[in-house]
Design goal:
Layout (H helix, E strand, L loop, with lengths): L4 H14 L5 H17 L11 H12 L4 H11 L9 H13 L2 H12 L6 E2 L1 H8 L12 H13 L6 H9 L7 E2 H10 L16
Antiparallel strand pairs: 1-2
Keywords: Calcium, Metal-binding, Repeat
InterPro entries: EF-hand-dom_pair (IPR011992), EF_Hand_1_Ca_BS (IPR018247), EF_hand_dom (IPR002048), Recoverin (IPR028846)
Pfam family, one: EF-hand_7
Length: about 210
């Protein structure tokens, strides 16, 4: 149902406080955009928000984000209630971190994207899932999953020829093939390029 003018004002005021990286006028624009997206959505959630498909299409068109695995994970970080749709509050507060977040906020966000099962660690299996769609396999008749497994094996054997390998060389202290947030944070503070080590989950500077 359409919100009253007073209700919209109260919502904008509240979101301006909670999504502290946006001005009031920016919040108003994002709320209006949200309403437009919901009006276009034909999903079962159209009354409460918009679904995974609309969210992915929006991030793709606005920011050029194309990795389906990453986009699904970004959706999950926005959908804090785990209801299958994004509310206006989740939309604005999520974008505040995605677009204007501090380094600490973005580290927590990126780690949450990569931590597929939410157990506080990035495991070997989660590395595999995040990397599998970004690796071009040669020759063409080789099984793609085998190629990614080879890449993960190289990472865990500390073949430090890229930032990804350096990351594990420095941080996987107990050699168990998984990383805690504390390990991730330490590595990112030393080299910010490691923020998106398992996939592009932030918009580029444009």
């Amino acid at each position: 149902a359409a919100m009253s003018r007073k209700g919209v004002k109260l919502l904008v005021d509240s979101l301006t406080r909670s999504a502290k990286h946006f001005t009031k006028s920016e919040v108003e624009c994002l709320v209006n955009l949200f309403d437009t997206l919901v009006a276009r959505s034909s999903s079962q959630f159209a009354g409460a928000g918009f679904d995974r498909t609309m969210f992915r299409d929006t991030l793709h068109s606005a920011f050029g984000m194309t990795d389906d695995v990453v986009l699904d994970r970004v959706f999950s970080t926005f959908d804090r209630r785990n209801k299958g749709c994004i509310t206006v509050v989740e939309w604005v507060e999520g974008l505040a971190v995605l677009l204007r977040g501090t380094l600490e906020e973005k580290m927590k966000y990126c780690f949450a994207v990569y931590d597929l099962n939410g157990d506080g660690y990035i495991s070997r299996e989660e590395m595999f899932q995040m990397l599998k769609n970004s690796l071009l396999i040669q020759p063409a008749d080789e099984e793609p999953d085998e190629g990614v497994k080879d890449l993960v094996d190289l990472v865990l054997k500390k073949m430090a020829s890229t930032y990804l390998f350096v990351f594990f060389l420095l941080q996987d202290y107990d050699h168990d093939g998984k990383l805690s947030f504390a390990d991730f944070e330490k590595a990112v503070r030393e080299e910010k390029l490691l923020l998106e080590v398992f996939g592009p989950c932030l918009p580029d500077i444009k």
